[in-house]
Request: fold
Amino acid sequence: MSERLVYINGDFVPEKEAKVSIFDSALMFGDMIFDMTRSFNKKQFVLSEHIDRIYAGVKMLKIPLEMTPKQMEEAVYETIEKNKPAFNENDEYRVMIDVTRGLLSMYANVLGGKVEPIVLISVFPVKWTVSALAPLYDTGVHAVFPSQRMIPADLLDPKIKNRSRIHYLMANLDVAMVDDPTAWALLLDPDGFIAEGTGSNFFLVKDGKLLTPEPRNILRGIRRKYTMQIAREMDLEVVECNLNKYDAINADEAFFTSTAFTLMPCVKVQGNQLGDGKAGPITKKLITAWNELVGLDYIAQAREYLNEMGSDGYKGTTMYRFVGKK
Reply:
């Protein structure tokens, strides 16, 4: 099988050789905008919207990027095309786009005076992300409130999808101490209202209404947007509002959304079981609607990937449960 290639400012290099300078602003300050997408049936889902979010972040951070959104989209598809020989027939494509300001000018002599933004585009199998999460679609996850709070928008705006995410890591490390492999962090903002997971958005169902945190101190997820759209098409009332621990613990149903896993049932909050401890009826309807939208059963696909990967599923480090040294 061919080796995967990474796009770096118009060039393609082997994945193992893809790198940025130790003097890059991304390494110095976490000064990087990024986004990640995935395909369903080999087709990228709303890629242009992910790219629009990148450029909103680029604008906010004033990164002098000359590449246009259209050029970036073309580069993504070129990267996918070049990497097709490195994928199995049943693989889906997970795309990661990183944009860094580039080398800090004070270190310009390291690269012969060349200072420019760097665009990196890589593609790898979706199964790396979802296979270990497959068992959780059956069990549901346990939302736990860590001591780490969400950084408020007036300090570091979470609507800018950036790599300065140490607060996510601290929350994951905190929740990793809970003796429950299904435990996921659910962060509160400084006012004690529910914000988001560590790379996911949160919803709850109460009295037939779908409730989700207002878009103030959260990343306004694209899966979040489409989940609300789907719910409204199902004639569900959708409310963006302040929610606290009480609301979550006393919810009828709950779930998380993210590009990685689409929609994940949450069946327990802070040790308290929701309903009968299984995905609720509205959650199930939304999963069905998502399957119809993307043209496949994304949960069945994750199970197939788990069987293929030969993993026992959910041990050690994943993107939502980081197990540190014991």
Summary: The first helix runs from residue 25 to 29. The domain at 132-309 is CATH 3.20.10.10 (D-amino Acid Aminotransferase; Chain A, domain 2). The chain is about 30% helix and 25% strand. The chain has two domains: 5-125, 132-309.
